[in-house]
Amino acid sequence: MDQFSPRQLILTVIVVSMASSFLVSVLMTGLITGMKPSQVVQRLVREVPGEALEKEISERVLRQDELVVSVVKRASPAVVAIVATKDVPVLEQFFVNPFGGDPLFRQFFGDDFFSIPQFRQKGTQKQEISSGTGFIVSPDGLILTNKHVVADTGADYTVFFNDGTKLPAKVLGRDPAQDLAVVRVDRGGLTTLELGDSSDIQIGQAVIAIGNALGEFRNTVSLGVVSGLHRRIIASGAGIGSEELAELIQTDAAINPGNSGGPLLNLRGEGIAINVAMAQ
């Protein structure tokens, strides 16, 4: 029998160890999955790098979807709808005959031949005039929103919570330079939205917008990315005129009328901006 050199002996031990490890892995995989050893080997041979990459991408997409769902569930209780109502005139229509006092005209044409419609006020009624979004920043009822959402000083404001309840709100302050406002409701123990650092925002990072879309669909969610930073626009709207806004964040997440005042979230669930305007 030939004698093994130390080098050959070491190589033989390494090969035997690797073969044993592979055999154990095949047997354990078979026990866990119920496959035969030959099926396990065939599967390992079939798994080319392209398939492994595709599997990894699918898993990452699934993890991001789960993350977005989790963020929305945590943040939604802190997002509210803000509705403005106001006493508006109730008008009724009536008709006036400009020749009604002329006996000759009445004799030939009657009272209803020629009438001009007129309108007159018949009392007032509460009517919704606008709506927007806000988010709770303190458990004792402080809510942050846009100034233009609560711009009408003669209106009454009501906050609608995610659980379907509502409370009257009082506007504490308006900042026209930043288009921000703070309102308050008389309730404690509210769920708040954690605020993040907007100075850390990067172009391309994923963001989530939540708001009262179209003034009708509360807590509507849209997903997008940060498209640009330090934008400057001229914003305008009914009853508020035009104003220049600077240092804005641009996103391709869908922002609809009624989303104003809602939060823009990062994937940690932190509020990093406030939705203020949309391009048209």
Q: How would you describe the overall organization of this protein?
A:
- The protein is of the alpha+beta class and 280 residues long.
- Helix content is 26%, strand content 40%.
- It is built from four helices and eleven strands.
- It has helices at 6-33, 37-46, 49-75, 103-109, and strands at residues 79-96, 116-136, 142-145, 156-160, 166-175, 180-185, 206-213, 217-237, 241-251, 263-265, 271-274.
- A six-stranded antiparallel barrel has the order 1-2-3-6-5-4.
- The longest helix has 28 residues, at 6-33.
- The protein is elongated.
- The model has no long low-confidence stretch (mean pLDDT 76).
Per-chain topology:
Elements: H1 6-33, H2 37-46, H3 49-75, E1 79-96, H4 103-109, E2 116-136, E3 142-145, E4 156-160, E5 166-175, E6 180-185, E7 206-213, E8 217-237, E9 241-251, E10 263-265, E11 271-274
Antiparallel strand pairs: 1-2, 1-4, 2-3, 3-6, 4-5, 5-6, 7-8, 7-10, 8-9, 10-11
Helix pairs in contact: 1-2
